[in-house]
Request: fold
Amino acid sequence: MSYDVLPARSLSSGASRTMVDGFGRRIEYLRISVTDKCNLRCVYCMPEEGLPWLRRGEILTYEEIAGIVRVMAGMGLRRLRLTGGEPLVRKDLPRLVDLLAAVPGIEDIALSTNAVLLAPLARRLRDAGVSRVNISLDSLRPERADAIARRSGTLARILEGLDAAHAVGFDPIKINVVLMRGENDDEVAGFAELSRARPLHVRFIEVMPTESNLELSASGFLSCDEALARVAEVDALEPVPGPPGNGPATYFRFPGAQGTIGVITPMSHNFCSRCNRMRLTADGQLRPCLFGTMQTPLRDALRRGEPLQPLIDETLRVKPEKHLLVQGSSAGSGGLIALSQTGG
Ligand code: SAM
Ligand code: SF4
Reply:
């Protein structure tokens, strides 16, 4: 293992069942990427030709994922999110949820999905223990949604997935919209309107630069401040605490609306001081930060039957204070080609 940064302080205590990093942040939340593959090719995320996919034997089995979560739950982990790639392209995902829901200490399991495959799976996922979902949706216009996803027929299926999510009672349901000037910035007010009549939480996300989206993330960058200003032209916005969750969003609401409007500002307003998470990649790398080069391979140690806690402690110890992303440059992304590689 080699690391770029070694913060001076490192605290973790299995005895008190809390994980605290070198900057005093309590880490209770793990984002688990269950696959690097995806059925879409969103322009801001994956290259059109895809990526060099992981081989089957490189990917953690469901039992291996649950084994890692069991060790981390013993150290203080409480909440999980399944992500990818697209988590629903992995076969029989509800079986993984069954395993994770049975881990003592795990209180909350959420899912991030593009929702194209959600409708037929929603009930089984809910029954297995997924309590809430985040759905990616970048345009409410069918042709544009397809152009952004580089796949056809996406919007109708995503909206079916959204309806199914309501029907089975996922709560809250959050809609993630990646802001892109010249692509979907004229829909910001329309997306915000979705939060009025239904308990939907619409979150605008600033696009982050990776190796595969440098041009778009520079020329197409739109700040959340600008998006909020456009929404505020439609109606007054009041700051609100927002729905339950583990994320860095700041929330607002139209008067009397059932849902909220959130902003996630990795580029314009850094929120790393509130970071509460680590990430597990599909091939078993534990990452202390979405970006950067730091990661600890857990898979082979797990397969050799070696103890994982020292590796997890070490990852916690080197968690960096903040990401070093620079707009228009891949310098701070640590060579990441796409967020799908680390679970976004
Ligand atoms: N496929 C699932 C989905 O789209 O929700 C889960 C994985 S995706 C990588 C997780 C989140 O990352 C999505 O909300 C997506 O919009 C967001 N995302 C991907 N690339 C991004 C980028 N370069 N900047 C900002 N958000 C990004
Ligand atoms: Fe796939 Fe999600 Fe990336 Fe879109 S954002 S390409 S749906 S992983």
Q: What stands out?
A: Confidence is low (pLDDT under 50) at residues 1-15.
